[in-house]
Design a protein that fits this description.
- It contains 13 helices and 19 strands.
- The protein is globular and about 65 Å long.
- With 490 residues, the chain is of the alpha+beta class.
- α12 (418-428) packs antiparallel against α13.
Length: 490
């Protein structure tokens, strides 16, 4: 009887004890630190990797499968001629500083993005907006100058998030949005901290706090994951260690696709690179698979144009620039460019630094000398992207469906083709799916024929996470570490 009583007391004690709660905090590793935290005032993907869907939201948003879904706009109506979009906003939305979000903020944001003095890195997203009107606090009418089949898609980009005029000027260092997480602090060189916004209009996230830690060194990233100092590293910089993580039950390895066309960009302002024969020679000197194997440990898909292989409109054009050193040498001789010497500027990511060494060796085999300069991300943005001071560079363009950048003569690689611009202009006013596919394929062929850049591979998304974490994106339809659905399993 005494023993049974003791067992009963013990059972009651266990029943009364609180169950162990799943963690509600996460530390996420990132290779690059963002240069600022305002996605409407900077091109760096790292800005959106911290802020997209976490701090800031747009009228529409991308889902993990790349679909365009309602965001701050719960629904919309489109006029028969495709020129007028009437957005119906979510009710009861507030910014993190307590300011109500209304139609007036949408007007402010879109007018600011399309203004002549706009610093938005993707200003072309807003180029066809003729006017923006607030019909009432929760209804906005946007009128376009011409029909744009990609308008809702464009409004889902991180560059189109809705801002408050009260805080817009200081978002670079102290961002204020409408998302499920609010900004806490930025310890530059180390981390950004967020916390759950209790006044969020939508479903509350499971996580109460999130820290983004910046670890550019692959060895340090591996050590941080192994030690548990980092819970997840969605874009892991040391692919050579993935098999070690796969063999360890504490971790899950998440491999998916990205929108990242990785290119050897050429500056057409350079006299030699303005010659199609030289650009073709460089492309034929490149062995894509050697780069994928040597720099990415086999992760990546060869591409022959600036288009994602997983897109239905993709066409394989790699044969137009197949590895052919003899042809490369012959083209250089024909162009009178033997002994060419070029500068190769490399930003920090692994694909660029490791890939750049392989590219330099491949170019050397056909007689092109390269001088490699390693740049930090802020330097790359200032010198290469904005200053156009480079000959060659390697970078992944991770924005979704961004083939339109080749229609911008002032873009950093300086491609200027009236024929290409005509294709993109027709695409922008075409809604029929079959016609759009044909135009997208024509655009792919045109930049492959002009060998605007040497197209290397589609960047894979290889991440590592604690095995108890769920809800991380497998694929990356847009640069983002969306934490809205992330949680720890019990």
């Amino acid at each position: 009887m005494f023993v049974r009583l003791r067992l009963l007391v013990a059972a009651l004690a266990l029943a009364a004890a609180p169950a162990f709660a799943a963690p509600d905090r996460i530390t996420v590793g990132m290779v690059l630190e963002p240069p600022n935290l305002d996605p409407t005032a900077g091109a760096a993907a790292a800005i959106r990797e911290v802020t997209y869907a976490n701090i800031f939201e747009g009228l529409t948003r991308f889902g993990p499968d790349g679909s365009v879904n309602p965001g701050l706009a719960r629904s919309w109506d489109i006029s028969d001629d495709g020129l007028t979009y009437t957005f119906h906003l979510q009710p009861g939305v507030t910014f993190h500083d307590g300011t109500p979000m209304t139609a007036a903020d949408v007007v402010f944001t879109l007018d600011r993005a399309r203004a002549p003095d706009s610093t938005n890195a993707q200003k072309q997203l807003f180029a066809k907006i003729a006017s923006v009107e607030a019909l009432d606090d929760t209804t906005v009418r946007v009128t376009l100058t011409a029909a744009d089949g990609a308008f809702l898609f464009n409004m889902a980009w991180g560059d189109a998030v809705i801002l408050s005029p009260v805080s817009a000027a200081t978002n670079a260092t102290s961002p204020v949005g409408t998302g499920p997480f609010r900004f806490v602090r930025w310890v530059q060189g180390d981390r950004v901290e967020l916390e759950r916004f209790e006044g969020y209009w939508g479903s509350k996230p499971a996580l109460a706090r999130a820290t983004f830690r910046f670890i550019p060194d692959p060895t340090a990233a591996f050590a941080a994951m192994m030690a548990g100092d980092v819970d997840a590293f969605p874009n892991f910089p040391a692919p050579e260690t993935l098999d070690q993580f796969r063999a360890d039950p504490r971790f899950s390895v998440i491999v998916g696709s990205t929108e990242g066309e990785t290119i050897l960009a050429m500056n057409h302002r350079h006299p030699a690179l303005a010659d199609l024969r030289v650009r073709r020679a460089i492309a034929h000197a490149i062995d894509r698979q050697e780069i994928i194997d040597g720099a990415m440990f086999g992760l990546g898909t060869p591409i022959g144009s600036h288009f994602a292989p997983h897109h239905p409109a993709y066409i394989d054009l790699t044969g137009m620039s197949a590895h052919d050193p003899a042809m490369a040498a012959a083209l250089l001789a024909e162009a009178g460019a033997e002994g060419l010497s070029l500068r190769l500027a490399l930003p920090p990511p692994t694909y660029a630094r490791r890939g750049g060494e392989i590219v330099a060796a491949q170019l050397a085999r056909v007689g092109i000398r390269t001088e490699i300069t390693n740049l930090e991300w802020a330097q790359w943005l200032e010198q290469v992207f904005r200053g156009h001071d480079f000959d060659l560079t390697i970078v992944s363009h991770t924005e979704p469906m961004d083939i339109g950048i080749y229609a911008r003569p002032d873009y950093y690689f300086g491609y200027d083709s009236a024929g290409y611009r005509a294709i993109i202009e027709e695409l922008s006013v075409t809604a029929d799916p079959e016609a759009r596919t044909a135009l997208m394929q024509a655009a792919q062929r045109k930049i492959a024929e002009d060998q605007v850049n040497a197209f290397l591979f589609q960047l894979a998304k290889a991440g590592v996470a604690n095995a108890k974490i769920e809800g991380l994106w497998e694929n990356a339809p847009v640069p983002a570490n969306d934490l809205t659905a992330v949680r720890w399993r019990d």
